[in-house]
Batch of 2 targets.
Target 1
Amino acid sequence: MRINATDREILALAVPAFLALVSEPLFLLADASIIGHLGTTELAALGVAGAVITTAIGLCIFLAYGTTASVARRLGAGDLRGALTQGIDGIWLAVLIGTVVTAVGVAAATDLVGLFGADRGITEDAASYLRVAFVGTVPLLVVLAATGVLRGLQDTRTPLIAAAAGNLLNIAFNLALVRGIGPVPALGLVGSAWGTVLAQTLMAVGLTVVVVRGARRHQATLRPDLAGVAAAGRAAVPLLIRTLTLRASLLVTTYAVVQAGDDTSLAAHNLAFAIWSFLAFVLDSLAIAAQALTGRALGAGDLDSTRRLTRRMVWWGVWSGVVTGIGLALLSPVAGHLFSSDTAVVDQLAPVLLVAALVQPIAGVVFVLDGVLIGAGDGTYLAWAGGLVFLLYAPFALLATGLVAVWAAFCVAFMGGRCVTLVWRARGDAWTRLGAT
């Protein structure tokens, strides 16, 4: 395989993005490792609270995606000052949304964890953790927005450094605050929440300093521009709807498994989805590169370059999917033994992984074209397409009988439906709007 200049540019963005994405789950893994030594109740409470906070933050991923696209367009148009101004507006939008989410989250923490129906001890501990965790919403959303700014500026290395440093700080703060060191009292589960908030705050400060320095160097204003913040908010709405349709589809999948199987099926499904999610990091890193490069090329008014980049990134998506698919197929007979000693779970997991392996090349196309259209600012189409795919997929999932059948529906109807809608759009010209905006 011959690597050309375009390939090197794609990899220069995708590889650091992949490493940064992989580091994100380490926050909760580190917390779980430390909290696990306190007791089962505390670990269960962390699981419940973690599900709430990751869902809330996951819905706000548009702060990174939308900012990447808008900043990259300005950069491509040669307006670096405008790009940084747009990025600053995105960060102010993150502060605004984060403030609202914090207020609602802290007030509703008990009600949110109560939805899981856990026993009283777990619910109380989870609510205590969640009230503190929501305090970190503003810095965490600022991290998303600042990461989007830097990606739009074609820099994925700085967010990687911030993610690595944040993980190390999170471990150090958790060890100190959970167990207590010297004059620092042992705060238990709540100490873990405070440790994570402190780490996230320092990450936000570090990334914001980098963006602010660039803004000052190019005379971009640091004050919130109400029109700019409002424009960023309007652009974010379609991406939020797109994310909601994806989350709804995943929830329907889990619901279908619960209805069609038993506890063993659910356990195997959870393992399969965890493996699927890890492989998705590989493909999502290509999507991030696609966002940044597509936005820049369209901003420069270079349609030929945009088309060439799209073809090359799709090529990378397909072959990345082939590689991950082959790897998953080869591991399918033994992967279950790494996660479970229950032979029934292992037996159910193997065929599911084979089904997932077959669809990996399609998933590669889906992730890349999703990134291309996000980079092009085509959020409205993605929102409508996401809703359509959900409506078409849900009946197939709910009518499926058995775990393998549900996953077959997920791979064929959901991933296949997304692939069809994205390829159809990418082959047309409606998304190739040229210029800085």
Target 2
Amino acid sequence: MDLTYKNKAYRYAMDFESIYNYSSQYKVENNPTIWKFMSIDKFDFLLKNKALFFAKPSAFIDPLEGSYSNWDIKRFDDDKITKVTPRVEMKKIQEFSAISCWHMNDYESAGMWDLYIHSDDGIAIKTNYKSLINSINDLRYKIFSGRLQYINFLEEMTSVNIFDTLFYKRKSFSHENELRLMVVASRIDEGLLESLFEKEEVPIEEWQVRMDILEEQSYEFFNEKGTIVSCKIDELIQAVYVSPKSTPTVVEKIKLMALENGLSPEKVIQSDLYKDFIY
């Protein structure tokens, strides 16, 4: 995180929050079922830290992650007024954000197992949108969430705002059917904090001081690859699907991990995706 870009990131973050608050694009309706596929090591990290890892955009494979589209660039050139932010500067500013990616699907996805699990062993967390949002209890951040927009980068626009572009991807990635959560340094949920302070009978003259402290803490990312956002594990996780390729020994290992970290082992089940049906 290059702090020389802190003021620019702050201005873009304020503008993005305004876009987010008034755009129907970000409304997630019908409480979709969502999944997160991960290695056993990452699941162990989640359980022990009671926190989700949010990755910086720079950690993603897609080189056009968070970029203007080709159509945007042409529009800016024709406009002669809107200034094109260089890609290098965009990426520096986006370092002040971090993202958690989830797959929306009523059923588990064979494609997602193959895409995100690079061995016979791994797990998929099954939950829903409301449970995910309600489980997050990290006061440093306001959570921005939305379905990704999959567009034709040659013919459609993303956004002028650098953080808003992070909710657009090329149509080639539409199979991911992604629900994306984002946190941005400096963006705290003032409404939530005010309700919390009132409930805890915090003197009103202390509210702003506490908010200022949390805002400053929002810049303290976990490491150079992203940050961790605390959550209530039991509320987050409805079920843990173990890879259909895993052995019974691995299933028992994951049940023990769950038990040792306060999660009911009954929530751990092995996927029967590749089970043969006898007839």
